[in-house]
Amino acid sequence: MDVSSDPYLPYDGGGDNIPLRELHKRGTHYTMTNGGSINSSTHLLDLLDEPIPGVGTYDDFHTIDWVREKCKDRERHRRINSKKKESAWEMAKSLYDAWSGWLVVTLTGLASGALAGLIDIAADWMTDLKEGICLDALWFNHEQCCWGSNKTTFEERDKCPQWKTWAELIIGQAEGPGSYIMNYIMYIFWALSFAFLAVSLVKVFAPYACGSGIPEIKTILSGFIIRGYLGKWTLMIKTITLVLAVASGLSLGKEGPLVHVACCCGNIFSYLFPKYSTNEAKKREVLSAASAAGVSVAFGAPIGGVLFSLEEVSYYFPLKTLWRSFFAALVAAFVLRSINPFGNSRLVLFYVEYHTPWYLFELFPFILLGVFGGLWGAFFIRANIAWCRRRKSTKFGKYPVLEVIIVAAVTAVIAFPNPYTRLNTSELIKQLFTDCGPLESSSLCDYRDDMNASKIVDIPDRPAGTGVYSAIWQLCLALIFKIIMTVFTFGIKVPSGLFIPSMAIGAIAGRIVGIAVEQLAYYHHDWFIFKEWCEVGADCITPGLYAMVGAAACLGGVTRMTVSLVVIVFELTGGLEYIVPLMAAVMTSKWVGDAFGREGIYEAHIRLNGYPFLDAKEEFTHTTLAADVMRPRRSDPPLAVLTQDNMTVEDIENLINETSYNGFPVIMSKESQRLVGFALRRDLTIAIESARKKQEGIVGSSRVCFAQHTPSLPAESPRPLKLRSILDMSPFTVTDHTPMEIVVDIFRKLGLRQCLVTHNGRLLGIITKKDILRHMAQTANQDPASIMFN
Fold first, then answer.
1. How many domains does the chain have?
2. Which of 112, 373, 521, 689 is the most exposed place for a label (fewest CB within 10 A)?
3. pLDDT, tens digit, for every residue of 177-201?
């Protein structure tokens, strides 16, 4: 090869060394265009190895390449370690890098705790605003308003002159039908106002702020990109609208959305640290810790939060993420405890203190509650998914504001007459969990008792009074109302959690069962099942415990959580000695629910939305091979590929414009079909654009070269474009006879986006994550076209 006829040799390998004795042969032309010195030419050769800006980033609704991100992070770590002994500044940078993980989770924990406290206080105040207002201090809710009053009585401790209902303010009547109707109208007015404001804010400013957010968080943690889902607008609007949605009295909770709020905080803070802002896989470690902090502040359950993140939402959970999740949950819980939003100096939402142990016989009703929880979960998932699918496929889905207004109106109209549905759902659960002590004045504790009962700490089992029977009827109506309304409420366009409504349904059912068992034990204490352990005049049965077990069972039936749920419930209530009943009920509800369908509500919504999520809990048992799933199929056009060194810039641009694939295998030649590597569509586009702007002589007819050495070109040919730096030289490959069971496992455990199929080293086809999801849908007799996103 005549060196003098090759004016572009410095560009041959993007950094190959050229012997100095060859440089004088390049002629004046070369020296002039490159600054006229050997130093500048060597510098230019170094420049050619510099990364192209934008290469290695991802488009919206695409999956990240976990393997590439991990390699990138290891490379960054090596670079920092190799430099840290050079100077004190490099050493400081290295320490900052090492500590940035702890810093980001600390900031996330602080922000999550502060926002949760703010949401709790605001939601309590606005919920009470539906009923009346505190004239002495407008910012006090009902309970705080009456704290300082000397005029409250024991029976009517919530009535004080400072607190005025709307009827008292507007028509000057505290009692009577006119007062009731006025309060009813104001209740509906405030409920509709709050719901309308919430849905309007979501629709106009942040459409991603609706729903619970947990299905999307799970999908994002599995490596999917949804831009804006964890952004500052979403955070701001979700925080405001969550307060409004809870205050409107809709059958929803704030616990699921708090996980979304915490993850938004984690995402925003991760941009302050280059280690996380430039690496999508590392960012997901922060989001795992943030979701633990979210559950920690939602329930006051730091350990439960860590287990929730591990069991329910995280896809990749290394040991250091476990420690950081633990720390984030601790910080968040500490901040929430400092704010003290419940005013009881406790972190737990529903503190319980039961004085009686549980007995072996009681496992039978506990397991029955587990069965009820599993049946409710299976019914709810099917009914809610059917309704959401109908909303998507009919005109009704085009009017989200109208839907929210209708649901809020129906909820308010039916809820007001029943004291148990009018209550804030968290307050209702608290009442149902509470044991009947001498200080309880609610109708659930209206037992007929002897005059000396108030002197005893453990009040014996007593016959139910008229108040208890009327309370049971009201609770039965409340149960039916909650079941129906929750189906229609979860999925509307306001922030809506599922934890609290599910727990309320379980707590109502549990309390009813508890009272029934208690009365059975009282009237039939001579039966052999009660005789051994329940004496006359003893306190044997605690109805509040049944409510707690029922709440756990129903939440387990809907979400299919097990370990984390039991821990959350005993942290939530402080009922540590009741772990065995909780475990029995939760396990039963999972088994019963799984008999009707293995996926929980979050997985069902992921499938409904068509997110590319490979669930690690699903088993793939079919005997298909990679060759059966790969594309192209027999009827398809041949696979779109790039060749190593005989395609021009124009050829590649045409291929990109004509196809919608996310990447292209690179082969040695069309004849040999030997695999060289894999180039991503986005990287190719960015690299070609960058070369056209920054490198002279790059035109449509320029040869594109992915090889290490540029082939010899005629003297008059335009300058070649070297794109070896964007080529993945080690793409994952399987042979055409690899069982799909193994391929699915590889995709799950390594988080792959695509995998190439070869036969004796020759490229046959490609399998993408979407192909696997379609194949799994087909084998499960589902619609493969439901996998919507790229």
1. 3
2. 689
3. 889 999 999 999 999 999 999 999 9
